[in-house]
Design goal:
single chain, 176 residues, alpha+beta, S16 Ribosomal Protein, Chain: A, 2 domains, 5 helices, 5 strands, elongated
Length: 176
């Protein structure tokens, strides 16, 4: 991707910049495609070939934030010129923002809990209104226990016990 960026030149402590079109993957001091202007930060003098800048932006070159500001001061208008504003956040603002987010999370959690309890109450009401066959059976057994009735236990007769013992003896291995 092509970018329009500044390339530092000049002496130590006295910088001046070239406005160049270069591949964004190449190093800042590497080769560039074309030089389209100069910028001196001390005198604020800008020499810019506006036609070349427009042509490169039409081809897809994206100006950096600083170059976008220079282009805007020179009166160049293009859809590629977007100036992003960066601002530091103070501790007070950061704490207020965190408190606001925490309050919002608590509000969302409370809403979820309220929806959950409402859903559970609705399901309990539906269960009470339409008991299943198993629940009816459990209720009947509970009512019998409350009334003192016991469920009948089927006892095995003497003959059934003897037949079961014979089967067990037959299944045992002989020789023991």
């Amino acid at each position: 991707m092509l970018t329009i960026r500044l390339r530092r030149t000049g002496k130590k402590m006295k910088p001046s910049y070239r406005i160049v079109v270069a591949d964004s993957r190449l190093p800042i001091y590497g080769k560039y495609t074309e030089m389209i202007g100069h910028y001196n930060p001390f005198t604020k003098v800008v020499v810019l070939d506006i036609k070349k800048a427009s042509i490169w932006m039409d081809k897809g070159a994206q100006p950096t934030n600083t170059v976008s500001k220079i282009f805007q001061k020179q009166g160049l208008k293009h859809k590629s010129i977007q100036i992003r504003k960066f601002r530091a956040i103070s501790k007070k603002e950061l704490e207020a923002q965190k408190a606001k987010e925490e309050a919002e999370r608590a509000k969302i959690q409370a809403e979820k809990e309220a929806q959950k309890t409402a859903f559970e109450q609705k399901m309990e009401a539906e269960k009470a209104a339409h008991p299943t066959a198993e629940e009816k059976l459990h209720q009947a057994v509970e009512e019998e226990i409350k009334e003192g009735k016991e469920t009948p236990v089927v006892e095995k007769t003497e003959e059934e016990k003897a037949q079961k013992e014979e089967k067990i003896e037959e299944e045992k291995p002989q020789g023991s």
